[in-house]
């Protein structure tokens, strides 16, 4: 038991590593605050294109979504970070993460929001248009608010996935939480910093996971 | 060289691609093998946990809920790194392959347990009562009445989740598994040319585009009419 505590819950080592772990946590939060809105912007654009009146636009949007849902995000990230410089385009770690998340999480958010827009009855659009709202107004004040409400559980669960996914930025040496924990582990030959990072991720995301499973259970019970 | 020739030399270099094709093909086989093992073990253990939970033994259920929440909240890469770099300290060295398999299996177990459980609880109480009162035992009710109905609503979310977690096999490259990404990355550093990475990306598309299309089909096939 003592050995176990020494190896995994070594408080001395954790407190030594705590400054860089805090810095890592801060970077992770910063990343999340950057990539969630980026993904949402990409998602709204894709959702609008996937529900466009023109058939070929819808097909192109669906193809785009499927393409970026088929490529593992880490593959995309490595390609942007290590591949693009060969084309004379060096976007750096932050650039690669921003572009990669825009493409990957945009596709996922796009699919969720498309389902949301599809769930709003046509009559809503027709009624809004006939009361004199413009197309953009209809979208912004009538369709999107209802669409978002209908797919709220999926949006939250996708957001949790996105925050978790920021950990892959450690692979391109962006100094977020997992990267810093591994640095600390390398220096101390002790796994406690990684355990501490895992605890931090858990505390950060647990409330959202609880909320998610309550919403999911409710949604499913409604269908049964 | 013109701009396009330059681009083609870097990203679509046939000579380099041909040279490293066998390695990436091996990576492809390894990815498929890893994915199959994850899907089988993850779904089976998820279903088992959901069934155990349906017996309603309080302390056991709290434990299940905690484990499920834990593996839904932790990033898969963190679990992989923890198992791979951490366990040797406990005298349990796992290979990169085993660490990746175990981590993603636990993640899929957690997500699928939650989906199976939501499916089970979504079956109306009256169905239980009716079956039990016609003389079916608890297990018979579960097997012939509840599970078939629950499966129907669980299939679309389960398919999507399984696909998303299976793509996590690429994370194995971080702990030295020579699956598609690992194989293409080492080929890229040997050849100082990103064409193998292109080839790897194509391999993922070949593998996952049909899977994603299948997921889309399942979603529309099982969709509930509103």
TrEMBL record, chain A:
InterPro entries: AA_ABC_transptr_permease_3TM (IPR010065), ArtM/GltK/GlnP/TcyL/YhdX-like (IPR043429), MetI-like (IPR000515), MetI-like_sf (IPR035906). The keyword Membrane applies. Gene3D superfamilies: MetI-like. Keywords: Amino-acid transport, Cell membrane, Membrane, Transmembrane, Transmembrane helix, Transport. The chain crosses the membrane at residues 25-49, 70-103, 187-209. SUPFAM superfamilies: MetI-like. Residues 25-212 form the ABC transmembrane type-1 domain. It is found in: Cell inner membrane; Cell membrane. Part of the binding-protein-dependent transport system for glutamine; probably responsible for the translocation of the substrate across the membrane. This is Amino acid ABC transporter permease. It comes from Teichococcus aerophilus. The lineage of its organism: Bacteria, Pseudomonadati, Pseudomonadota, Alphaproteobacteria, Acetobacterales.
From TrEMBL, chain B:
Gene3D superfamilies: MetI-like. Its main location: membrane. Keywords: Cell membrane, Membrane, Transmembrane, Transmembrane helix, Transport. InterPro entries: AA_ABC_transptr_permease_3TM, ArtM/GltK/GlnP/TcyL/YhdX-like, MetI-like, MetI-like_sf. It is found in: Cell inner membrane; Cell membrane. It is a multi-pass membrane protein. The chain crosses the membrane at residues 24-50, 62-85, 91-111, 197-218. It holds the Pfam family BPD_transp_1. Residues 28-215 form the ABC transmembrane type-1 domain. Belongs to the binding-protein-dependent transport system permease family. HisMQ subfamily. This is Amino acid ABC transporter permease. It comes from Teichococcus aerophilus.
């Amino acid at each position: 038991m003592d050995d176990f505590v020494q190896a995994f819950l070594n408080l001395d080592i954790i407190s030594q590593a705590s400054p860089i772990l805090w810095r890592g946590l801060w970077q992770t939060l910063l990343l999340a605050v950057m990539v969630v809105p980026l993904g949402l912007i990409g998602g709204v654009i894709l959702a609008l294109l996937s529900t466009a009146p023109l058939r070929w636009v819808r097909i192109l949007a669906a193809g785009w979504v499927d393409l970026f849902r088929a490529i593992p995000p880490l593959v995309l990230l490595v390609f942007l970070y290590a591949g693009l410089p060969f084309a004379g385009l060096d976007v750096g770690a932050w650039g690669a993460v921003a572009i990669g998340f825009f493409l990957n999480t945009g596709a996922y958010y796009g699919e969720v929001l498309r389902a949301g827009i599809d769930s709003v009855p046509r009559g809503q659009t027709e009624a809004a248009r006939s009361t004199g709202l413009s197309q953009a107004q209809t979208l912004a004040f009538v369709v999107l608010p209802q669409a978002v409400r209908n797919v709220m559980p999926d949006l939250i669960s996708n957001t949790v996935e996105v925050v978790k996914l920021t950990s892959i930025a450690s692979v391109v040496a962006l100094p977020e939480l997992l990267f810093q924990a591994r640095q600390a582990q390398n220096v101390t030959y002790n796994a406690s910093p990684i355990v501490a990072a895992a605890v931090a991720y858990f505390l950060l995301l647990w409330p959202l996971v609880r909320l998610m499973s309550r919403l999911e259970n409710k949604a499913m019970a409604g269908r049964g | 060289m013109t701009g396009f020739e330059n681009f083609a030399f870097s990203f679509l270099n046939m000579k380099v691609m041909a040279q490293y094709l066998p390695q990436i093909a091996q990576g492809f086989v390894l990815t498929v093998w890893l994915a199959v093992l994850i899907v089988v073990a993850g779904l089976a253990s998820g279903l088992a946990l959901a069934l155990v939970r349906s017996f309603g033994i309080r302390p056991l259920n709290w434990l299940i809920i905690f484990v499920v929440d834990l593996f839904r909240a932790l990033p898969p890469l963190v679990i992989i790194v923890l198992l791979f770099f951490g366990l040797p300290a406990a005298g349990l060295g796992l290979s990169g392959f085993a660490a990746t398999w175990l981590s993603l299996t636990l993640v899929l177990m957690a997500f699928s347990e939650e989906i199976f459980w939501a499916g089970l609880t979504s079956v109306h109480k009256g169905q239980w009562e009716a079956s039990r009162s016609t003389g079916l035992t608890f297990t018979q009710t579960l097997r012939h009445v509840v599970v078939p109905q629950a499966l129907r609503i669980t299939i679309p979310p389960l398919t999507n989740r399984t696909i998303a977690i299976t793509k996590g096999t690429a994370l194995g490259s971080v702990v030295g598994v020579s699956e598609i990404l690992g194989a293409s990355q080492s080929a890229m550093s040997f050849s100082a040319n990103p064409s193998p990475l292109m080839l790897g990306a194509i391999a993922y598309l070949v593998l996952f585009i049909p899977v994603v299309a299948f997921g889309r089909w399942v979603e529309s096939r099982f969709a509930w009419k509103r």
